[in-house]
Amino acid sequence: MAIRLTELLQAKNGGNQSEMARAVGVTPQAVQKWMSGVTEPRGANLDAAALFLGVSPSELKFGSDATRRRERDIALIKLEARDQSIFDSARVGEKRQAPRDQPAVHSAVIARDPEDGVPDDVVLVPESRIKFSGGNGHINYELVDEHEPATYRRSWFQKHGINPDRVRRFRVTGDSMEPMLFARDTILVNLDETEVTDGRLYALRYGDQLRVKYLSRRLDGTLVLRSVNPSYRDEEVPAELANEHITVIGRVRDRSGTGGL
């Protein structure tokens, strides 16, 4: 909402927060927090802010389709900048095709002869295939023998406090996360990070499907599933349905693949 408030106020009066504060009946400090995303206007304040800015409360809170696509693009750029170093510094020996309009990047390569064994500072993570039992039951992981395991630096796991024994690699399907993740790319998932932190990327079970989405949770327990591809709308799953049909498998910590080639 902070992006929408900033753009609408800029168009309204050149960004004068004091004028908006007087019109809404709050302090300038409150408006400043709204603009920075620390808090959001609610109830009567949301209605008054929307009236002042010339939009409906729903549009101010959730945005139009065009606005949401623009905000998603901005959020993706910020996430790419924040997570790129994490994703790329983790990999050893596998080149990653960057998303469109970005230069290709790769981490340092370690040459290894299979007959020499695995060095102490290297962790091999094979790809897994995931299978779900009926209902909201057990999740089973089967190793995929036809693909070579990915090679990671042990120091990367230590740096980020991740237990190498509690990670799995899965292959992505579909196009809802393009241009960040393409079909056939692989993701590294930390099974120990299942508590939802707003704006983080997670692998989850939805019914009998493995899905990868940015997650956030509202105060009423509604789980919001967000894609990167603007062709896909956000999915809002009420708390009761989310508890019944969705299981967070873990947080996505790395990605690799051919980038849609």
From TrEMBL:
Assigned keywords, A-Z: DNA-binding, Transcription, Transcription regulation
Gene Ontology terms for molecular function: DNA binding
Record flagged with keyword DNA-binding: yes
Annotated organism of origin: Pseudoduganella lurida
Pfam family for this entry, one: Peptidase_S24
The HTH cro/C1-type domain, residue ranges: 12-60
High-level lineage: Bacteria, Pseudomonadati, Pseudomonadota, Betaproteobacteria, Burkholderiales
PANTHER family per the UniProt record, alphabetical: FELS-1 PROPHAGE TRANSCRIPTIONAL REGULATOR, PTHR40661
SMART domains: HTH_XRE
Cross-referenced PROSITE patterns: HTH_CROC1
Keyword Transcription set for record: yes
Protein name (Swiss-Prot/TrEMBL): Peptidase S24-like protein
Source superkingdom: Bacteria
SUPFAM superfamilies linked to this entry: lambda repressor-like DNA-binding domains, LexA/Signal peptidase
